[in-house]
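Entry — protein

Goal — fold tokens:
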Amino acid sequence: MASSRDWFESVAEARRRARRRLPRPVFMALEAGAEAGVTRADNVAAFGEIRFAPPRLADLPSVRDLRTSVLGTDIALPVIASPVGAQAIHPLGEVAVAMGTRDAGTAMGLSEFASRPAADVTAVNPRVFFQVHWSARRDVLLARAEAARAAGATALIVTLDWSFPGGRDWGSPAIPERLDLAALARLAPAGLARPGYLLSWLRHGRLPDLTVPNMALPGQPAPGFFAAYRDWMTVAPPTWADIAWLRERWDGPFLVKGVMRPDDARRAVDAGATAVSVSNHGGNNLDGTPASIRALPAVAAAVGDRAEVLLDGGVRRGADVVKAVALGARAVMIGRPCLWGLAAGGPSGVRNVFDVLRAGIDSALFALGRPSVRDLVPADVILPPDFARGLTEPG
């Protein structure tokens, strides 16, 4: 069935619709990768280097089983929404993502830099994993995590994978600190070129808001995104002792996100992580590092059955999900595809993206003769020589 006005048949079509709907600076903020975008491009291209084993004839059930569990939560397919800050590309922001992931039967990550309070999000979808960066003092981070737990978050994500690259070759869009009259005048041409985007906000009775309520200190107003970001830049990166300290105080599933090396994967598990995510922050970390899928096999081997392994970066099709699961991931996390769906169609657009991936997963399972995603093994895929680009360990 071809795409229609209210439904799209591919993640690529969701991206095209997002590009047509969003003002150019907003769309470019979603698209941008660090510096030349080498890693961002490799995240996607690396999946194309992986081949499937030839299809096999098998006695399969009429319905393949896509269900799995991540961080103690049962989900209908091995895909969850990655935590992404400031999802003010739609008036409902993270609440719309919660609606779409709820309807898809899956979970979502919620960033501390989110534009909506954790309680608003968990009220819609209780399967929420709260994410912190090492962006404040230990006691402040713990307080944020506990506030999210009180709001209903069931797991904690600690993100390590961002080394703050300074520029992008195609230019970084100018995003204002606040939407005052001067900012509105400067952004007016881009906004007027996308009247549907403006009308959607006006129908909700407000303009985009870049405050981050989940980072507010008790009794104080929510800071702006950039004020919170500047505070983060003054905080030293965490040590493994810091990670272990936070883990000791969080009684529940604990994911360390941004692990690309087998030795770091082992350190994360030794620090108490119940899961690790192989991620390079969607190509927004150190540019020129390999795609996350290239690091997955070695990380999965290093972790073994001591913790769950997830993958984040470059997933565009259900077949990509199947490749990642075959190579050792319990599930994948999607960032840009989820936001493209959000921009293209709000909550139903988010659900649409997950439905596209669901159909692709089922089709690949059928061809591989696998009744369940839990039956996938490395032999279901074929890796080219030096696919890992040096990310394997000697011996």
Notes: The chain has a mean pLDDT of 91. The two ends are 49 Å apart (CA to CA). Residues 277 and 310 are 4 Å apart (CA to CA). The first strand starts at residue 51 and ends at 52.
